[in-house]
Each structure stands twice: as C-alpha cells, then as structure tokens.
Design a protein that fits this description.
Layout (H helix, E strand, L loop, with lengths): L7 E5 L4 H12 L7 E5 L14 E4 L5 H10 L2 E6 L6 H6 L1 H21 L4 E7 L10 E2 L10 H20 L2 E7 L1 E3 L15 H9 L6 E4 L11 E2 L1 E3 H17 L3 E6 L5 E2 H12 L5 E4 L8 E4 L2 H7 L7 H16 L4
Parallel strand pairs: 1-2, 1-4, 2-3, 4-5, 5-7, 6-15, 7-12, 8-11, 9-14, 10-15
Antiparallel strand pairs: 10-13
Helix pairs in contact: 1-7, 2-4, 4-5, 6-8, 6-10, 8-10
The structure holds nicotinamide-adenine-dinucleotide.
C-alpha cells in the first residue's frame, strides 16, 4: 500500500480538473478508493469525474464547520490542496473574492490540519506567482512579483505555509504549475464558464463557438501573442504523488515548478489545433486581458532533482488527448 492503509488522504477541490486527475492517479498507484476523501463545494467541480468508491464530502473551505467535520469523520494524515478560484481575469475585477477563498479557505484547512495532527500538505500553487520576467526560464529562485490578485493569493498562501511549518511543523510542497492541459482517465477539462485557451480553441474548431477571441497580438514576443508553457494534467497528477512521498521522509516547506520548459505562443496553438481539426479556426483579435504576462516558461530542473519527476507527455499528446475527450463529450465527428 502506497501511503499505508491506516489513514486517509484529503483532496480538496478533487472534483475539479486537476484534482480529479490526481484522484485517478492515486488509484492507479494502488491507493484504495475508500482511503481518498474528496472535499469540494462543487461550484466548479464534477462529481461524475470521480472514480467509484471514492468518498465525496460536499463542503466549503470557507465554512469552518464543514472543514472541522471532514477531519472529525476521517483519520486524515495527508492533504492535496487543489480547491481555489483560478480565473486570472476575474481576479482583476473581483480581488476580494480571490483573497477570501484562496487565503481564508486555506487557513481554515491548515487550522483543522493542526488540530487533527495532520502535517503533510501539497499545495497547488501557480506560475502566476512570478509575474512578468521576459523571455527567460523561470526558476524557483526568480523573484515573485505577481501582476494579478490570483497569483498574489497563491504567493500569500505559500508564505502562510512557511509560518505553519515553522510554528506547527506542517510539512509542505507548493507546486507552481504552469499551464495544465490535456485529458486522461476518460475525464478532461470542463470549466463553466470556459476561459481556458485549449478548450476554447477546440470548441471553436468544432463549431460550438462561432469565433475564437485572441486576447492581444501586440505582446513583445516573436508573433505578438502570449507564450505559455503547457504541461499534461496526467504528468501534474503524478508529480503530486512524488511530492507527497517526498514529504514522508523530509521535514521541509518548499516550492517547486512543474512545467515542460518549453513555450508555445497562442498563434502556434491555433495552428496545431487547426491541424488536428482539419479546418481553420475563425479568429478575431481583442485587447489584451489585464494581468496577463507576455511569456511564462518554467525552469524545471528542481522538480527533476528533488522529486525525480520529468514530464513524459508532449504538447502534441496534450492536444490530441484534449481533442479526443472533447469529441467524446459532445459526440463530435470530424
Ligand atoms: N488549471 C491550470 O492550468 C492551473 C495552473 C496553475 C495552478 N492551478 C491551480 O490548481 C488548482 C486546480 O485547478 P483546476 O484547473 O483544476 O480548477 P477547477 O476550478 O477545475 O478546480 C477547483 C475545484 O475547487 C473547488 N473549490 C473552489 N473553492 C472551494 C471552496 N471554498 N471549498 C471547496 N471547494 C472549492 C471547485 O468546486 C473545483 O472543483 C487550483 O488551485 C488552481 O489555482 C491550475
């Protein structure tokens, strides 16, 4: 048994896109379904993404009683913390919503963990914590200077984790993911509303949206569109297990990037998905979205060194898996 069968793993936000893939990955690696407790308010989660036998505890991290109850009812010793609001654009309009959910919700979780003597947590942080750094590979040593409240909320929670490590001996790894993409285990990326680039491109290529709105084509990049680093959601899920295993033997509070180390522009992605779909994607250009850096590419050496983790899947595999999942979802035929 991977993590011993005498205790349970709490997965907050486990019904969401990345969290549900991590739950499937835990089962694949031999964790028993009844050892996994998914805690999700289902605002953006999909219970149908969860494998049979996994326990779904519907609750909200902002409600201390909900959080207290889940720890009271289950002997939880490990936490994978995915639950958060994650729309960069919305965070620029409603910063309080992001600071409240992503920080206060996290503090309620940490307080309940300390109370229950649960002292291992893997936190879904984000490359949004870094802000803008031009065309460089961003390492964990790169200065963090977020340019949107979403990224700031992630950075603040990382700082809070450092204090809980110092004061309460809570071990943590904050995984700063770059852009999650792709589909695995028969589930995929479904956000409502959908603001993520790859699902939007696929939906437009399928004719489900009339036009793809390209947010800014005048960035300081070779083709003027934003460059991002994409990482397969199954690779991300696997990294969580490696990180959790690492915490069993190491008394640390650390930050680790998860990315491929390669960047692709929005225009390049449009071209790749047009090739998959076999048709052009109608595109219109709109002003850039406030809070979007021009380039975000991961330096991923630390993940390889510390966690022995490297991405296994290419961008082509991410796009193909996403395309096939979306086709299945809506019965689309090319
Ligand atoms: N998707 C990405 O590319 C990406 C990149 C970097 C970081 N992240 C981080 O990874 C995590 C998961 O992202 P995702 O894309 O799967 O998002 P998602 O919206 O699909 O999943 C988040 C889940 O958390 C739940 N949730 C939110 N607030 C909650 C609360 N207060 N109480 C209980 N449940 C709550 C939602 O219902 C949802 O199921 C987030 O923390 C996000 O910031 C994602």
């Amino acid at each position: 048994m991977l993590f011993g069968n005498d205790h349970k793993i709490l997965v907050t936000g486990g019904a969401g896109y990345v969290g549900s893939h991590a739950v499937h990955c835990l089962l694949e690696k031999g964790v028993h379904p009844e050892q996994i407790i998914v805690f999700d308010n289902l605002l953006y989660g999909h219970p149908e993404f969860l494998p049979a036998g996994v326990i779904l505890h519907k609750g909200d991290l902002l409600c201390k009683e909900d959080v207290r109850l889940v720890f009271e009812n289950h002997p939880i010793k490990d936490v994978l913390h995915f639950a958060a609001y994650a729309y960069v654009g919305e965070s620029m309009a409603l910063p309080g919503k992001y600071f409240e959910n992503n920080i206060m919700g996290g503090i309620n979780l940490l307080e309940a963990m300390v109370q229950a003597q649960c002292r291992r947590i893997i936190f879904s942080s984000s490359c949004a914590a870094y802000g803008t750094h031009g065309d460089i590979d961003i390492s964990e040593e790169t200065e963090s200077k977020p340019i949107n409240p979403y990224g700031q909320s992630k950075l603040i929670f990382e700082t809070i984790l450092a204090w809980y490590h110092r004061i309460h001996a809570v071990r943590s790894i904050s995984l700063r993911y770059f852009n999650a993409a792709g589909a695995a285990y028969g589930i995929g990326e479904r956000h409502i509303p959908e603001t993520h680039l790859i699902p939007l491109l696929i939906q437009t290529a399928m004719g489900r949206n009339e036009v793809f709105t390209l947010l800014g084509d005048d960035y300081d990049t070779p083709d003027g569109t934003c460059i991002r680093d994409y990482i397969h959601v199954a690779d991300l899920a696997r990294a969580h297990l490696e990180a959790l295993k690492f915490l069993y033997d190491h008394e640390v509070c650390d930050v680790i990037n998860l990315g491929s180390g390669e960047g692709k522009s929005v225009r390049q992605l449009v071209g790749m998905i047009e090739d998959l779909a076999g048709r052009p994607i109608p595109t219109k250009v709109a002003p850039p979205r406030p809070g979007d850096p021009a380039v975000l590419i991961a330096g991923n050496g630390k993940a390889a060194k510390v966690l022995h983790w490297k991405p296994q899947k290419s961008l082509a595999e991410m796009l193909e898996s996403a395309w096939h999942w979306h086709c299945q979802e809506c019965g689309h035929r090319r």
